Amino acid sequence: MTRFWLGGYGSAMDGSADGIGLLAGDADMQTALEYRGAVTQTPSPSWLAQHPTLDVVYAALEGDAAVQAFSRSGESTLRPLGEPVEAGDSVCHVSVARDGSSLIASCYGDGRVVRIGIDPQGRLVPDAVNKAAELRAALLGEPIETSAPAGVAAAASDPYAGELTAGGEERISHAHASAFLPDGRIATTDLGFDLVRIWRQGPAGLVLDHEVVLPLGTGPRHMVVHPSGHLHVVTEYSCEVFTLAAGRDGTWAVASSVLASPIAEIGVDFPAELARTRDAQFLYTALRGGNTIAALRVRGGGESLEPIALADSGVDWPRHHLVHEGKLLVAGQRSDTVALIDLDERTGAPLGIRHTAQAPTPTHFLPVR
Questions:
Q1: Nearest to 145 by CA among 134, 156, 160, 158
Q2: pLDDT tens digits for 336-366?
Q3: Long-range contacts from 277-284, C-beta under 8 angstroms, 24+ separation
């Protein structure tokens, strides 16, 4: 049997999910998927991440500005592993270091990028440096410097300062995702400031290394690290996928960009997730609005992409999708459904919708290990 933990939006986020859910199907994903209900009573666990070696799952509690760890306590059950840890306003994404030592939380609401420690049992541990700073502040009146509020630095580094959004509003920092790079550094997207930031990990927290500025109004959202070392970044507002490459000095820059689909409608279609096949030959992004899946072929050594197909996603507002065993799972946030789509292994094109199932306000899939 194939199983997935399912993140979702609860009532505080205008959704109907009761917590982390369980989605099940047969081993080869040939027959129907079934939603088995919530396995935790967690408010709006909108994004999930797996510990690299332990049976521990981490959830971004988007409506509660916190992150929480859960330990697998049975074949298909999870239990809280410690209390929620504060992250930032509308925390929408978490990723875990390859050695399991820390977690990076991205906060859409206030632009924060927060590093949180993980102990050997998988529990989240607020940074001891932060606690010491808070104590000194309370006793001596010293200013607090912590590893958490990277959003403060983000707010001061808008490359288009003074510009307004397309709607005439002031630009606001919106951290949206993070990815651990092959050299140990961390990349994060700032959808509000059109930036990809590259961070180093220091003893007291994250240290900004440099920034890659994307064109005004593109809105970088999610990323995929290609085995070649390239970083593919999908943009929510301009419907593009940018490919970034590191130079010999370690500085990242844009290598190429392409529309997710030549018939995507800017202002109507809003890309969400970016996912790749196991062999890294194809990428897929979902276009919310038109409710389609765009397929792209990876060219050369990973430095460029070519759009090859656009197909029905089978859901309304496809917020997240996952390539699994030659098929594509798609979460429909507004339709309360998930769809299973067949993929052509040779061409990478979506072949058609195999099955749809009901699920409450789904926002993220995580395979049960």
A1: 134
A2: 999 999 999 999 999 999 999 999 999 999 9
A3: 277/323, 277/343, 277/348, 278/323, 280/226, 280/227, 280/228, 281/348, 282/308, 282/343, 282/348, 283/224, 283/232, 283/241, 284/321, 284/323, 284/328, 284/350
